[in-house]
Amino acid sequence: MGSLPWLAHFLCFLLFHLHFQASSSLSFSFNSSTSMLCQHDQSLALLQFKKTFSNWNSPYTKTKSWKEGTDCCWWDGVICDIGTGNVIGLNLSASLLYGTIHSNNSLFSLHHLQKLDLSFNDFNNSQIVSQFGHFSNLTYLSLCSSDFVGRIPLEISYLSKLVFLDLSGNYDLILETTSFKKLLQNITQLQELDLSFVNMSLVAPSSLMNLSSSLAFLKLVSCKLQGKIPDMSHLSKLALLDLSNNHLTLETMTFEKLFQNLSKLREVNLNDVNMSLVAPSSLMNLSSSLASLKLEHCGLQGKIPDNVFQQPNLQLLDLLGNEGLNGSLPRHDWNNSLQSLSLSRTKIQIHLEHDFINNLRSVETLDLSACNFEGSNLELFGRLTQLIELRLSHNNFSGQIPSSLQNLKKLLELDLSYNNFNGQIPSSFENLQQLHVLYLQNNNLSGQIPNYFSNFTQLSLFSLANNLFTGPMFQVDRLLSLYYLDLSNNLLNATIPPSLFTLPQLYTLVLNNNQLTGHFGPFKDNQLGYIDLGNNKLHGRIPSSISKLVYLSFLILSSNKLVGEVPSTICKLKSLQILDLSNNSLNGVIPQCLGNFSNALSVLHLGMNNFQGTIPEPFSVGCSLRYLNFNGNQLRRRVPPSISNCKILEILDLGNNNIDDTFPHFLETLPELQVLVLQSNKLHGLVKGSSTNYSFSKLRIFDLSNNMFSGPLPAEYFNNFKAMMNVGVNMKYMGSPNYNYDYSASLTFKGLEIELVKIQTLLTTIDLSSNKFTGIIPQSIGKLKSLKLLNLSHNRLTGNIQPSLGNLNNLESLDLSSNLLVGRIPTQLANMTFLQIFQVSHNRLEGPIPEGKQFNTFDSSSYEANLGLCGFPLKNCNSEKRQQPTASKEGDSESKIGFGWKPVVAGYGCGVIFGVAMGYVVFKTRKPMWLVRMVEGKRRRKPRRSNN
Ligand SMILES: *[C@@H]1O[C@H](CO)[C@@H](O)[C@H](O)[C@H]1NC(C)=O
Ligand SMILES: *[C@@H]1O[C@H](CO)[C@@H](O)[C@H](O)[C@H]1NC(C)=O
Ligand SMILES: *[C@@H]1O[C@H](CO)[C@@H](O)[C@H](O)[C@H]1NC(C)=O
Ligand SMILES: *[C@@H]1O[C@H](CO)[C@@H](O)[C@H](O)[C@H]1NC(C)=O
Ligand SMILES: *[C@@H]1O[C@H](CO)[C@@H](O)[C@H](O)[C@H]1NC(C)=O
After folding, report:
1. Can you give the three-state secondary structure of 680-713, one letter per residue?
2. Cα–Cα distance between 83 and 681 in angstroms, integer?
């Protein structure tokens, strides 16, 4: 969390000028401008090159100064040889050039070029054409971060005079083995090489053995290299080595050789290199020149040697995430040049006492998150007055926040999150007004948020989430740098200061799960991109000024008390990806434009409101909705066929409306559909499945309950439900791939209306109950082996209970009650070992109830009102010739809703409830409360932030 996450991961060298200063052939002391130094053909070539770019005339590009009739040697970025007038250098770094460089570009006629820098432009997926290999005198080439793609041509290896090569930061470049080998063979004077982010997955790391021994600077970050790092001890001039973020391993011998032979090494970054085979004692022999050592997540195991901390010139030591690293720290003789130290997520024991703190006197950046502390005198940190960044999160520290931290006058970043600090934020914190980053989330802090934060005008990232703060927020008017604010999951119970919505830099605003009241807004056209105000007590209307937030991609206003209509100006929010207005009292007609205002929209949740009218349509071609939920409104008429334009739709929940239509067969064409809920509408007619093999093949939740469908059960669909046939193993919750947003859906389980706050990907259910289905239970249903719930109750099904149901050995709940089923209960059903709820009451069944396993656990309510069932828990089959029909104990009113509360409670009594034990159902409902309290999951939605 050190640097702001949206900063670039790396920087190209930007060394162009340094290189040129070293070059003696250059000088620009012209006395007369009358004689043209520039060669005419080269001048023309440059002018043509300039026209390659669509924005060549923009005032910001260097090429703006390139004018016909003037001496090209004076043009911005152009360097000539003073003797010959040849163009030998071109520096167009960060010139905002936009366009494609083809192989016939006039650039390639500038044969005399020795240095070429085109870094930080946008060449719009240009290939690096082979002509780049034809600048025979080139010593310096940088194409860094300029949107080049494709293969790096073999011809690059013709540049045999190269001293400097930087192709980094072009995310879709590929370097193949042959090209790399040739490059290493032919470019023998190379001193600096950066291929970071180039895909080198085909290159064997052993080829690094052939790197030119003149190399001083080697950076291969995130190159997808995999395998063993070879012996590189011949690189005796190497000063910087960065092989981080690949899939490399390093062995003890190689590691030791590296540091023994490379006496010039100053900076080493081996983050994510697997060093589990390297004994930490090898760190004892680091070369004395070393200034920076980064070994994050290297899998080092064992005791850390003292010398590491006593290394004479070491300024930066980063051991983060080596969870097997232990031992303790030397008490004395630390090197006093150490400026940055991270022992985060190691087991190295830290005695929090005077000696330790004395050793850190010069440290500016200190990361001791999730460390192995002994001692709790946190006030000692107040002595480290050089500190700029201090991270102490995830340490179980308790008590008050140490007030001595107020002495850290240089501190810009403070992270005390994920501890057990309690009480109020100390008043001494008032003195830390210079802070840019303050993380106090996930503690037990209480009281009001101090007002003095209104003076923290430098704050950029600020989180107090998951604490117990109450009362109003602080004044934010002057926090003009604030970018990220998270106060979610507290007890804030006042209005939101209107100025919050108009802060110029604010991008992320997370206030969900509080008790905030009043109205929100109005909005100005600022940077806001992420707003979560869910689960509060906000009222009033959605302000139409929200349409000014052109960068808004995430908007959650769910579970508040909002009223009125949704302003149709909301459709101006073209960047919106997640829109959740569910569980309010919004009414009126849903703006029709919501179906097609933006193909960026991924989640649209308007469930549990009072919307009337029809479902918005059309949904546009190219619609990229994954989640669509209108459950619990009063929407009428039809399911719009244009929904089939949303080809990646995964969840469609239109339950609990007044839709008066036939079954929307066109949904079959949605290849990704996993959840389809149409329960409790006025849908009617046949549900006749398609014969196409792929229809509904990913469907896992199919709920048509409580409609007026008729005719036979959709046996063809049962044949196509491939996802219900394969028992999955991958336990995940369904959610947005880009945001931390869990998909939810409303289902009815056994007469309980339940909102699944999260949907486990292993949950597979079919609910066709309370319709007018007739005919038999088709055999094909026995193929759906991963089904966990099957409810066919309250229909007019006839015939026998299908014995193939016994194959469904993942089934936990089977309800066939209130049909016209006859015959015996097949003994095969005894094979369903997870069955916890079994209901066949109100049919015409007779004969013995299967014995054993789960059948020992069902009580008589499972069987009531049949013709003649016998055996446990009813009367013994042999004792009487003829069984009396078992009577309903609870009376008719209850049997109408399947089976009522009692049997569910009984289910709990046995120590089991559907799904909860397995963890794949997290649900929430407004009734009954005891159930809510037991299983309700706390909603936590946060924007994803990378840790670095
Ligand atoms: C390349 O450099 C050599 C030696 O400095 C010089 O003789 C030759 O003319 C240069 N070639 C070009 C195309 O500039
Ligand atoms: C090395 O570069 C020269 C041109 O400078 C070229 O002719 C030769 O083919 C290259 N060799 C390899 C192995 O690429
Ligand atoms: C903000 O700082 C000013 C000047 O130091 C001080 O007078 C004022 O009381 C502070 N405001 C708050 C709310 O602490
Ligand atoms: C907010 O909550 C606190 C603590 O429960 C209470 O004392 C205060 O009266 C509440 N304020 C409002 C405006 O409801
Ligand atoms: C129960 O399952 C086992 C294994 O799947 C199978 O061999 C057996 O025939 C089944 N028994 C019944 C009664 O279906």
Report:
1. CCCCEEECCCCCCCCCCCCCCEEECCCCEEEEEC
2. 87
Residue in 161, 144, 120, 136 with CA at minimum distance from that of residue 23: 161
Nearest atom of ligand 3 to the alpha carbon of 430: 14
Beta bridge partners of 535: none
Q: How many CB atoms lie under 10 A from the CB of residue 722? A: 15
Q: Do domains 5-174 and 649-932 have the same CATH topology?
A: yes
The CB of 493 under 6 Å from ligand 4? The reply is yes
* Ligand 2 center–CA 182 separation, angstroms: 8
Fold adopted by 5-174:
3.80.10
Residue having the nearest C-alpha atom to atom 12 of ligand 5: 828
Distance 630 CA to ligand 1 centre (A): 72
Calculate the alpha carbon distances from 9 to 145, 245, 570, 829 in Å.
11, 12, 35, 58
Task: Return the ligand number nearest the Cα of 84.
Answer: 1
Ligand index nearest the alpha carbon of residue 852: 5
From the CA of 84, how far away is ligand 1's center (Å)?
11
Closest CA to 484 of 534, 519, 525, 530: 530
The set of residues, in sequence order, having a beta carbon less than 8 Å from that of 107 and lying 6+ positions away, is 45, 49, 52, 90, 101
What would the two tokens of residue 580 be? 């959740």
**831 CA from centroid of ligand 5 (Å):** 6
Q: Which ligand is nearest to the CA of 86?
A: 1
Contact between residue 120 and residue 145 where contact means Cβ atoms under 8 Å apart: yes
pLDDT of residue 101: 92
Which residue ranges of the chain lie beneath pLDDT 70? 1-35, 56-57, 690-693, 728-731, 745, 747-762, 879-948
Task: Tell whether ligand 3 has an atom less than 6 A from the beta carbon of residue 451.
Answer: yes
* CATH placement of domain 649-932: 3.80.10.10
Pocket lining: 137 vs ligand 1, CB cutoff 6 Å: yes
Classified as helix, coil or strand, 422 is strand
Distance from residue 72's CA to the centre of ligand 1 (Å): 20
Q: Which residue from 132, 84, 96, 138 is spatially nearest to 114, judged by alpha carbons?
A: 138
- What pLDDT, on the 0 to 100 scale, is given for residue 839? 86
DSSP 148: E
622 touches 645 (CB < 8 A): yes
What does the DSSP 8-state code read for residue 204?
-
Judge if the beta carbon of residue 447 lies within 6 A of ligand 4: no
CA of 11 to the centre of ligand 2 (A): 30
Q: pLDDT value at position 267?
A: 94
Q: Which pLDDT score, from 0 to 100, does residue 296 have?
A: 95
Taking the domains of the chain in order of start, what are their residue ranges?
5-174, 198-287, 649-932
Predicted confidence at residue 29, as pLDDT, reads 39
- Which spans in 754-896 are helix H? 892-895
Other CB atoms within 10 Å distance of the CB of residue 130:
14
Ligand nearest to the CA of 160: 2
Is the shortest distance between the CB of 574 and ligand 1 below 6 Å?
no
Ligand 1 center from residue 459 Cα (angstroms): 56
pLDDT at 897: 31
pLDDT attached to residue 810: 81
- Residue 517: what pLDDT? 93
